[in-house]
Write a structure and sequence with these properties.
With 170 residues, the protein is of the alpha+beta class. It contains 3 helices and 10 strands. Strands 3-4-5-7-6-8 form a 6-stranded antiparallel beta sheet. It has a two-stranded antiparallel ribbon with strand order 1-2. Strands 9-10 form a two-stranded antiparallel ribbon. Pfam families: DcpS_C. It catalyses: adenosine 5'-phosphoramidate + H2O = NH4(+) + AMP. GO terms for molecular function: catalytic activity.
Length: 170
Amino acid sequence: MARNTSASNHEVVEDCIFCLIANDRDKETEVLKKNEELVCFTDIDPAAPHHYLVIPIEHIHSCSSLHVEHAGLVRRMVEMGKAVLREQGVTDMKDIRLGFHMPPYISVNHLHLHVLAPSSQIFKAKIYKFIPGNIDFITEEHLQKQLKKSWNIQPFKTQWKGNKLISKRQ
């Protein structure tokens, strides 16, 4: 895995598409909002009429890599996601879903917050990916509670037992 440092002194993992997007090295992705810490853009495989991803510019593998000091980062990710929803014309902020996929259920190994609206219109074929309390999707509220408890989020160990997929925290 090749790693470089960007002009903003953030580590760039060369084979991480989100690192490339965050550091203006992907020309195909339209960035909706960016500051010195975060970037927001549209998900390439949307599950709702509004489906955005908020990522830190710094390469953080997943929410399993977070600890109590990251609580502010998660809060700022949520704030940016909500701001983009408002900028995109979403007015019912009670009909939104914000959360993270847990390893091994992540498609890109770079922390990203899913911002979906309206949550009542998440596409039926994709709703299973965004069910709060499921083993693979953790809401931002649940993550914040765990970070405040100083609990290190442990990844799930997934294995087959017979014809059943069993997942439990390591």
